[in-house]
Amino acid sequence: MNSSPVKHQSSLGTESIIRLSEVVKGFAGLDVIDGISLSLKRGEVLALLGPSGCGKSTLMHLVAGLDHPDSGEIVIGGELVNGETGRVGYMHQKDLLLPWKRVMANVTIPLRLKGMSKAEAERIAAPLFGPFGLEGFEEYYPSQLSGGMRQRAALMRTYLYRRDIMLLDEPFGALDAITRERLQDWLSGLISALNTTVLMVTHDIDEAILIADRVMVMSEKPSRILEEEEIPLPRPRSREMVMEDDFLRVKRRIYSILRSGGA
Ligand SMILES: Nc1ncnc2c1ncn2[C@@H]1O[C@H](COP(=O)(O)OP(=O)(O)OP(=O)(O)O)[C@@H](O)[C@H]1O
């Protein structure tokens, strides 16, 4: 088990499903993202961890194609996608479910937008209600669900957009602490089962360690990658691990990197 810190260096490879190369972004002349490079292999879960306001959402918007980088490259599935939307599913803190549509109609929106019939879209979505903890709630409206269930529905919709990649932007940031912990445990198991590639941003160290294969720590803005850590914990992971030595060791190291801000 190698738990030593890995200084950030480009691990760009041809087999990457997501690759960012020297991405720079600023607003009104002020740099927010200051040359970030990273890559994810298929099936890998990478968490970007950084202080509030360091540019995590800005970076996710760039990967989702909601904004253009000022310079650098964003390549998804081998194609340059700088500023092009529609390549990946992107989930926010807010569930953004349509309140007038039932859960089944909400989660199948990506498939319907791709031109699939209602029957076909529902046939594909139906078996996922179990794994996403929503079995029996297909015909409910979002307002009839708990906050955690709404986030699971939003996550399912993101997954149905493109099953091999998900972008998660502080997916549980708006939930109360207990619900957040439950969903972190659940997501950690689900991701392993789905074998999907996940790029996630968070400012919650436990969340990053519980869910990710690798964690990259971002500095304050203008943000850079300070350091990269492999998470040396076996899967499946569970909440009990947060008290274990391996978990605490990596948490202490990440915490000290965050605190030092790269100084
Ligand atoms: N469209 C925009 N125009 C001007 N400034 C922006 C814009 N979007 C983001 N910023 C600035 O970029 C910086 C980073 O914002 P961003 O939301 O990406 O940070 P964050 O790390 O996601 O924060 P948090 O953890 O609080 O959600 C902030 O200072 C913000 O004011």
Automatic annotation (TrEMBL):
* Domain ABC transporter, first and last residues per copy: 18-245
User: What GO annotations for molecular function exist for this entry?
Assistant: ATP binding; ATP hydrolysis activity
Q: Which SMART domains match?
A: AAA (SM00382)
Against Gene3D superfamilies, the record matches this protein to: P-loop containing nucleotide triphosphate hydrolases
The UniProt keyword set, sorted, is: ATP-binding, Nucleotide-binding, Transport
Superkingdom of origin organism: Bacteria
UniProt keyword NAD present? no
List the protein's name: Nitrate ABC transporter ATP-binding protein
